């Protein structure tokens, strides 16, 4: 048998934890649907609140990543960079100065 890579055990535990969380959420949703009146398709408000909290946490995480990338770029480069949303997933973009034509 081949030996597992060093991070494989952690990945398997993480994957199992994620699957367990998904199964709990699935059971909770099925239970909440059975408690609603028949034919009602309006979900409870709690998942929407959870999504807002998750979105806010993701935005904070991205902002922290942008700040770290910007600090790293300024420390290790002579160029100038700004944070801006990018279609390609770039956290920071280089700024090129405009030169007047001579």
From TrEMBL:
What GO biological process terms does the UniProt entry carry, in alphabetical order?
A: DNA repair; response to ionizing radiation
- Going by the entry's taxonomy, the superkingdom of the source organism is recorded as Eukaryota
Gene Ontology CC: one annotated term: SOSS complex
Give a yes or no for keyword Nucleus in this entry: yes
Q: InterPro entries of this UniProt entry?
A: SOSSC (IPR031821)
Q: Which UniProt keywords apply?
A: DNA damage, DNA repair, Nucleus
This protein's record includes keyword Methyltransferase: no
| Predominant localisation class | nucleus
**Where does it live in the cell?**
Nucleus
Subunit structure comment from the entry: Component of the SOSS complex.
Function, in words: Component of the SOSS complex, a multiprotein complex that functions downstream of the MRN complex to promote DNA repair and G2/M checkpoint. The SOSS complex associates with single-stranded DNA at DNA lesions and influences diverse endpoints in the cellular DNA damage response including cell-cycle checkpoint activation, recombinational repair and maintenance of genomic stability. Required for efficient homologous recombination-dependent repair of double-strand breaks (DSBs).
Spell out the family assignment given in the record's similarity comment. Answer: Belongs to the SOSS-C family.
Q: What is the protein name given in its UniProt record?
A: SOSS complex subunit C
